[in-house]
Amino acid sequence: MIKAGSLIVSVQARPDSALRKPEILAAIAQEVVKGGAQAVRVQGIETIAAVRKVVNVPIIGLIKTERYGFDAYISAIADEVEAIKYAGADFVAMDVTDRSRPEQLEELFARASEVEIKVFADIATIAEGIRAQELGAHFVATTMAGYTDQRPTTDGPDYELLQQLVSQLSVPVILEGRVASKADIARGFELGAHAVVVGRAVTAPRTIVESLLLG
């Protein structure tokens, strides 16, 4: 289980990154856990398996697959949900936005239940958060806020959506998306986030250096 007050680190690398190798990302996962991360978010079957060998904290697994004609791309078919489970993840991060998808959400949630993996729902709006809860999500995260047409991109985390979700849902709500500082994390917890996810601000050296130069 992901404990209240946890910092989750998304250990991923962009497709053109030299870090995009399972053994490298597993080493990064080890380091962030040693630094205090209480869960990690990991993309790709081989990388999930590599990370599972070296950390004991919960793993939120996902598979990103671009499919022609469909917008949803994070763990968007039932077979991916099952593969994530058997690679060693404790949770499956799933795109639960109201966008075109190759398989219906009901199918994905049913497969998750069958293989006994908990669902970490990535959403962009309050309506999507409510639906995710109704479908049986164990956690609802603001991951997609600002990355779909339904909601504008905020300068920093979408605290307004976080507050709406916290006030209307009974499942734990996770703040994710554009979290870049200790102040962002603290604000998330002040507003009722169960946990907070930070990604590129920790695990993307190229992005970090670019931001320092631009700053």
Give keywords:
215 residues, alpha/beta, single chain, eight-stranded parallel beta barrel, 16% strand
Tell me what the structure shows.
There is one protein chain. The chain is of the alpha/beta class and 215 residues long. The chain has a single domain (6-214), classed as Aldolase class I (TIM Barrel, Alpha-Beta Barrel), CATH 3.20.20.70. Helices cover 40% and strands 16% of the residues. Strands 1-2-3-4-5-6-7-8 form an 8-stranded parallel beta barrel, surrounded by 7 helices. The chain starts with 5 loop residues before the first strand and ends with a helix.
Q: Topology of this protein?
A:
Layout: E1 6-11, H1 22-34, E2 39-43, H2 45-52, E3 59-62, H3 78-87, E4 91-95, H4 105-115, E5 118-122, H5 126-135, E6 139-141, H6 159-168, E7 173-175, H7 182-190, E8 195-198, H8 200-203, H9 205-214
Parallel strand pairs: 1-2, 1-8, 2-3, 3-4, 4-5, 5-6, 6-7, 7-8
Helix pairs in contact: 1-2, 3-4
Pathway: Amino-sugar metabolism; N-acetylneuraminate degradation; D-fructose 6-phosphate from N-acetylneuraminate: step 3/5
Enzyme class: isomerase
Pfam families: NanE
